[in-house]
Amino acid sequence: MRIKPVTFGKSEVVANPLGLGTNAVGGHNLFHALDDHAGKQLVDAAIANGINLLDTAYVYGLGHSEELIGEVIQHHHRPDLVIATKGAHDFSSGEEVINNDPAFLTAQVEASLRRLQTDYLDIYYIHFPDHDTPKAEAVGALQRLKEQGKIRAIGVSNFSLAQIKAANADGYVDVVEDEFSLLHQDHLTDGLLDYLHDHQISFVPYFPLASGLLTGKYDHLVEFPADDIRSQIADFKEPRFSQILAAVEQVRPIAAAHNATVTQVILAWYLQNPLISAVIPGAKRAQQVEANAQAMNVALSNAEYQTITAVFKGFQATRAGKSLKDPD
Ligand code: NAP
Known about the structure:
The protein is built from eleven helices and eleven strands. By secondary structure, the protein is of the alpha/beta class. Helix 1 (36-48) runs parallel beside helix 10, helix 3 (102-115) crosses helix 4 and helix 4 crosses helix 5. The longest helix is centred in the N-terminal third of the chain and has 14 residues, at 102-115. The chain is globular. Mean pLDDT is 94; it is low at 317-324. NADP nicotinamide-adenine-dinucleotide phosphate binds next to helix 10.
């Protein structure tokens, strides 16, 4: 493996920078016809292939993703793994409400610990910001859990820059997870990444493969069922879909030069991007995970890195359709 481990923020959490996104492990509310056995297999495949950062959340299957991961990690050495999970979704009223109340977050951490069958979480993210809770109070609750040894690093996800600043008022935030990919680079210009860099906060982008579009496997538009999250994503609609495919074609010669796949080269671009701490591609099958792990062995030249950056530069300002940050 060519890539060095990464330390998250000011914490002592260290992981390999290519992790596994697990919204398709037990995330039956996000994807159509998922198979639990395949989900557990791909988590096992990740660990067997040098991936030790597992990114999950309560809302992926309303606890089911955490439960499946909890089963798998019983067969592995816990200290070798970095488990990141998230909470903020409150269904106690019968409807989905985002809740950052300190008591609610504390209860959510305890529930995640039970589902994951572990006595500590390496990273705990507030998954989405609510409207009412002062962000420093929400993070203060996580800081108390950190002092009790129940979590080791504090994260926030889907927070605006102003909300991140408020959350980090006492300097407690170690990591931010937010949408960022070659197709969605808004944070290059909105000051968010500058703030994180200046305050020693790690950045983990989500949707690094643009939900599969950046793998190079699409050659025609696909209709997803309404209960598949991709049916809501603007990248899968024309004319943007064809523009993305044309850009991906330009990555193929670089992949060929490395005897690698387009996916591996795209993931290598994230791994070599100094603004990014860790990249967490998701997967549906173990074979995808095994292939993606090999991206840690692909070293792009500076010229290749710059070529890929330039190819996707035009996508920076484009953002259309339903934002997946809208929790409802
Ligand atoms: P992604 O990483 O951009 O795309 C993953 C999808 O691409 C896979 O499910 C698979 O789908 C396809 N794929 C992966 N490897 C492949 C390969 N080698 N060859 C061909 N296809 C491949 O999107 P994501 O999984 O939705 O997001 C990544 C992670 O970010 C999630 O798992 C989750 O942990 C996290 N996330 C966090 C938030 C948040 O609010 N914090 C939001 C979204 C996601 P198909 O096989 O179906 O094509």
